[in-house]
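Researcher: I'm preparing a figure for a lab meeting and need a structural model of a single chain. I don't have an experimental structure, so a prediction will have to do for now. The sequence is pasted below. Please return the structure as tokens so I can convert it later.
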Amino acid sequence: MTSYLNLIWSGVVTVLSFVFGDYWIIFALYLVLQVIDYVTGCYSAYKLKQLSSKTGIQGIVKKEMQWVIIAISFIVSYGIEFVASEGFNITEMQWIYLIGYFTLATMFINELRSIIENLIESGINVPTILTKGLSVIEDKLEQIEGDSDSVNK
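Model: Understood. Here is the structure written out token by token.
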């Protein structure tokens, strides 16, 4: 039985490595955060007596659309790199892959913030360092987004 489980686990890791590359664990952690966020959201809605299947389905669809956004950001970054290297003979475009990872990091932080908000709404005492730490990160991301918006104008 142990060898059968090892075979299954190695197959899962192989597929994840092929699909998501060397950093597949980041994507797996993001999926785990999404599941935790959904569970804590359901618990919060239950505690507040606002549990609704319609809202639950909307939450699942929202989580799926976040994966679409991540996929699009990686596709765009690979597309830009391909066009730049083939069409313009620019070979130093490796930094463009960071578009996808920046998007993933932003979504990661969003999930963490949502989990903490759900816990607070459920009446669970959350350490202040977590709430303040996430607000600092959110402020930095908004500052970066604001800087890029001012450059684009």
